[in-house]
Each structure stands twice: as C-alpha cells, then as structure tokens.
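Entry 14. Ran structure prediction on the chain below.
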Amino acid sequence: MQTAIYKRDLVSFFNNKTAYIIFVVYSLLSSVMAFFWGDFFTTYNSSMSSFFVFQPNILAIIIPAIAMRSWADEKRSGTVENLLTFPLSNLNLTVSKFVAVFSISLIMILFSLPLLITSAIYIPIDYGSVLCSYIALLLTSMVLSAYCCLVSSLVATPAVAYLLGLLGGVLWTNFSFGNIITSLWHNAPFYFDGILNFSNNYQNFLNGQLNFYSLIYFISLAFLLLFYNFLVVENWRAR
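Output, structure tokens:
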C-alpha cells in the first residue's frame, strides 16, 4: 500500500504537462546561470563549480513547484479523508509523500548529467569534487522536499503552498540564520554561526569535503521537518 501511494503520486505528476515544463525550466535556469553568470566557458571548471554554486537558488524555486500538490491537492479535492482510511500508519503516509517528491527531484537533477559528460570531453574533471557537489545537491533537495511537503500539508491550495515553499527555500539558502542566533544569544558558542548556516555547510561539499557535521546538518534538518509533517497527519487522524 505504501508503494501504491508512492507510485500514484509519481504517475500523477508525470501525467501532468506541468511536470515537463518544470524539468525544462530547471535545465534552462541551470544552463543560463552556469554559462552567463558563472562564466562556465571562460573559467577552469574541473569541479564544475560554476554550475553547482547556483543550484541551491534554482532548487529553491523548482522544488516547491514539484511538492505544492503533494498534500494541498488531496485536501482541496477531498481525497485526503480517503487516504487516511488506508491501512497505513501516519509515518508511512508521510514518508510515501516525501519520497515521491524527493524521487522527482532526483530525476530532475539527472538532467544535469549531459553538462558533466560534455565538460569531461574538453577538460579533466575532478570527479571527487563533482561527486561531493552532487551529494550536496541531493542533501539540499532532501531538505527542500521535506520542507515543501510540510508546507503543502499546512495550507489548502497548491498556489499558497508554492509561495510559502519558495519563500522558505529562498530564506534558508540565502540568509545566515547562524548570525541571527548568535546576535540574539550573546553567549552562544562561537561555532554556531558556521554550523547553522546553509552556505557554509553547502560550501564544504563544493570544496570536495565530506564533512561529518555538514552531513548531520542536512539529515537532521530533513528529519525534523518530516517529523513536523508526521505530527500534522497525526492531528488529522485524531480529529
């Protein structure tokens, strides 16, 4: 049953023309930012840094469009009541919805592989750094997918879910929450700023470092968001 819900969400997404528009927009934004803003052709891109450095902002725009219908559409159409009657635990329902959105995000990221293959023809690629950067993309997608699923469960319409998902994603990837906390909490440990900032943790991977604390940062944040989503589903069943 859990697999059935996962497959249903995937099929529902790809049966909609919007899915292919989203993938095309992702590819276009990635190319434009890497080629024109990142000077991809004029800099030595053995680690493809000109491509990866803009990906968080692109994912913050695109993933909310993937996840906005996850729960909001179920609530709008009234099918969420039927969903809650399935012999599935609240945890399984939450995870099924999240994994469907995350899987679509991973498929979308695969559209960047032709750029890697083409680059490898002309320049020697540092595959270790590229692998670390792709791990950073997967972790970023994981957190944004969990966050946007949570937002979709809290609002009634996909449009509102998209706007709130976009706002939260842009704030997370661009603002220094570590600085905010340390400025409010003057006795905070000095390393809080670096540990809690997205840019610092993301950059660790772009530098070719599989940093343990950065892994924990992304994974724990995704689990926390999924836990809140689980509580929302629990509240629906308790009514």
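Residues 188-192 have pLDDT under 50 and may be disordered. Will compare against last week's run tomorrow.
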